[in-house]
Amino acid sequence: MARNRAPETSAAPGADIDWDRAAAGFDEEPDHGLRDPVVREAWAARLGEWLPPRPGDLLDLGCGTGSLSLLAAERGHRVTGVDQSPAMVALARAKLAGHDALFLVGDAASPPVGERLFDAVLVRHVLWALPDPGRALRHWRQLLRPGGRLVLVEGVWGTVSPVGIPAERLTALLAPFAGDIRVERLSEDARLWGKEVDDERYAVVAVP
After folding, report:
1. What are the two backbone dihedrals, phi and then psi, of residue 29, each rounded to the nearest 5 degrees?
2. Which residue blocks in 27-162 are alpha helix, DSSP H?
3. Is the CB of residue 111 less than 8 Å from the CB of residue 43?
4. What is the CA radius of gyration of the chain?
5. Cα 117 from chain centroid?
6. How many Å apart are CA 208 and CA 188, to the nearest integer?
7. What is the pLDDT along the chain (208 residues), one digit of tens a residue?
């Protein structure tokens, strides 16, 4: 869920953020902790549209404290979450105690899941910060079962020095191997963010 969950390099945006230190207050943001019932329901409804209709195996990369993982688990999905921050992973494990969920410390770009395959790979606010997003996408595609899907929530934030990945660039990276690509604009739905936003926020659902 956090904006940069992969191992950081000097070339990666957000490389100076200490995500272990940030973990304690991470859920205070409305769209991170999903503590507001309106925000939570808005994300639950979107996930219901994006994820496979039947419960399956879901890989949540850059899972942060596990808020989206929890919504997916509540829909019956078997969740594996990966985050580079041990503190984030510890919070996710506590949040999903009692659910069919496994959380691992690792690199979102190359998650430590061995030969396992998934029905969906969910990635929120991670891809933009990776040094080679195209390479990460190609690897994630290899983690999908036939008929599986990538669910990517991204955006472009800021006006003076904007950071992020525009939807057009992301769809271009997906085009060589994704036969079905759907873009859903999210900026206009203030319920998702707990406030009005004026930057670019979107989701892409891609079926290779």
Report:
1. -70, 135
2. 30-33, 37-50, 67-74, 86-95, 133-142
3. no
4. 15
5. 17
6. 28
7. 443 333 333 334 555 678 899 999 999 999 999 999 999 999 999 999 999 999 999 999 999 999 999 999 999 999 999 999 999 999 999 999 999 999 999 999 999 999 999 999 999 999 998 999 999 999 999 999 999 999 999 999 987 889 999 999 999 999 999 889 999 999 999 999 999 999 999 999 999 9
Structure tokens at 147: 């008929």
pTM score, two decimals?
0.91
Q: Output phi, psi for 155, to 5 deg.
A: 175, -175
Number of residues in the chain: 208
Structure tokens at 148: 């599986």
In the structure encoding, which two tokens stand for residue 186, read together? 């999210």
- Give Cα 154 distance to the centre of its chain: 8
Rounded Cα gap, residues 169 and 119, in angstroms:
24
What does each C-alpha distance from 36 to 2, 27, 40, 84, 97 come to in angstroms? 18, 11, 6, 26, 21
Pairing of strands 118-124, 200-207: unpaired
